[in-house]
Amino acid sequence: TKKSLIPAYITVQIQKGDSNVFVATLNKYNAVTEAGDLNELFFNVNDLIYTIFEIPKKYQKDIQYIPTLEARISMVHIAHSSSKQVNERMKFGQFRASTDPSSFPSTSWS
């Protein structure tokens, strides 16, 4: 098992690439994922977080990172913008843990 501290917030940079693919970058963790639409992006960002923190499958249903309202508005704007406009502006948003991180196992997964 790995010791793990899950942050309450994770900053996610979202861009739309030239082929209209959404690219999410978690700079602090040197990690990137992509998706064809915003629903898939939400799933992929959470999957990436599960991988980074080595969260076992049995805990994943209780731990989801949800974009803040401001981030959701930015994501919709990105979805409706051309890729060239979005690449120039580089939108940022935060994903928040859907439950209190202090309730997560903090010393090790079991």
User: What fraction strand?
Assistant: 25-35%
| Sheet with the most strands: spatial strand order | 3-2-1-5-4
Record field, number of beta strands: 5
Secondary-structure element order, N to C: EEEHHEHHE
Distance from N terminus to C terminus (CA atoms, Å) equals 7 Å
What is the rounded Rg? 14 Å
Count of discrete alpha- or pi-helical segments spanning 4 or more residues? 4
Feature tags:
single chain; 110 residues; disordered C terminus; 5-stranded antiparallel β-sheet
Short description:
With 110 residues, the protein is an alpha+beta fold. Helix content is 35%, strand content 25%.
Plain-language structure description:
35% of the residues lie in helices and 25% in strands. It has a five-stranded antiparallel β-sheet with strand order 3-2-1-5-4, with helices on both faces. With 110 residues, the protein is α+β, with helices and mostly antiparallel strands. It is globular and about 40 Å long.
Q: Which helices and strands occur, and which strands form pairs?
A:
Elements: E1 9-16, E2 22-26, E3 31-35, H1 38-52, H2 57-60, E4 65-67, H3 69-80, H4 83-89, E5 91-97
Antiparallel strand pairs: 1-2, 1-5, 2-3, 4-5
